[in-house]
Amino acid sequence: MNSTWIILNPNAGTNDKSLIPDIESKAKQIRTSAGQNLFKTQYAGHASEITRKAIKQGVQKIIAVGGDGTVNEIAKELVHTKTALAIIPAGSGNGLARQLYIPMNRSRAWDAAVNNTPVAIDSLEINGKAFFCTAGFGFDAFVTHEFHNMPERGFMSYAKASMGSYFNFPDQSFEILSQGKELINTKAIGITIANAGQYGNNAWISPLSDITDGKAELVILKKLPSYLLPGFLYKLFQKKLSKDRYYQTIDMPKTFTIKTTCDYMHIDGEVVKVPEGENQYRVKILPKSLNIIPGKN
Ligand SMILES: Nc1ncnc2c1ncn2[C@@H]1O[C@H](COP(=O)(O)OP(=O)(O)OP(=O)(O)O)[C@@H](O)[C@H]1O
């Protein structure tokens, strides 16, 4: 049996025609038995199914080739298992890969995936759904929703989706509780729960977040007047955001509850429609729960 499986989402990313043949040839180079070691996903949820099979068969490492959606599907199955995850970034945002300093260059990412040693990172759960980078309510979830409906992928589409709706987006209510005590009660354009520091695309929404520290941060974003937006965006991409009257970041306890009236949320960049009548979310931190291969050791 091959001890490394590769799971590739052929639909991921921005239409790179060389991706599939390149990964096919790299997979052949590391094949150690007659068994299959490359699996192409055929539908949403397929990467999770393949991962469950890999765990049962004692596979030691899974190399995910795709974007954050594919990575999330695989990683959530690997939480609290011995199987390590490596990533070849092939999506549009690649948040977890960038957070782990995995090269965007495919050959260098492959070298890291094959040769580097895993580290244990934290994961988070929101109403039982695992995530590894960020989850959010309000404006960032709305932008993610708009982005997924755009014909083109990539950073420029994110910028268009954000700018087109920012000034009309209404404030939302957020109440955060822990152990029955109210920690926060506020109106804001959105909140982000951060395990990693960035959304993807090097947009550092929570620059001090450390994916291995056993903690999560909550970012509260208030609507900025237009003249402050360019400075905010500059700091976002330069990893320089810090507390002010429009941007707050709070260290969170190990478990907490969010009550909100938002219609959408995103979990690692995948939009989730909030079920009618559901407005309460339990968040739990699972320290050092996933073995993952970083870009640098
Ligand atoms: N063959 C397939 N057809 C349709 N959807 C698929 C297929 N394989 C996987 N998927 C789904 O596609 C979703 C998006 O994929 P992925 O995140 O890898 O790429 P992306 O959306 O281009 O990247 P990013 O998340 O960085 O924007 C995944 O959540 C997965 O469930």
TrEMBL record:
Residues 1-130 form the DAGKc domain. InterPro entries: ATP-NAD_kinase_N (IPR017438), Diacylglycerol_kinase_cat_dom (IPR001206), Lipid_Phosphate_FormReg (IPR050187), NAD/diacylglycerol_kinase_sf (IPR016064), YegS/DAGK_C (IPR045540). GO terms for molecular function: ATP binding; kinase activity. Keywords: ATP-binding, Kinase, Nucleotide-binding, Transferase. SMART domains: DAGKc. One of its GO terms (cellular component) is plasma membrane. This is DAGKc domain-containing protein. It comes from Marinigracilibium pacificum. It holds the Pfam family DAGK_cat. It comes from the Bacteria. SUPFAM superfamilies: NAD kinase/diacylglycerol kinase-like (SSF111331).
